[in-house]
Amino acid sequence: MAQIELKLSTQQLLTTASEFSSTGNSISSLTADMVNISTALAACSSDSTTTFINKLKALEPSIQKMNRMIQEHVTDLQEIAKEYETSESTSVQEAEALQTDIIS
Fold it and tell me: Can you state the angle between helices 47-97 and 10-41, rounded to 10 degrees?
């Protein structure tokens, strides 16, 4: 089986996490806007209009849950980047501490 190696800087990871977070927040905001606009435009209160608005409002908990899940993944990505940077820094410090003149 072929081994796949991904090369990604921690800065790219943090930037992507930030973009992902913004997208999740935008989804939540757009859903709330859709509900507000639909409710405001519902001049008549027919059964079909009421049903539509109720169905649209029923989406909000799912959208909020999805956004929470996105934000959890964002936190995970940020923690991965932090752990990698810490590990990288520790490795550099340990490598610098190695003796180079071992035969004297």
Answer: 170
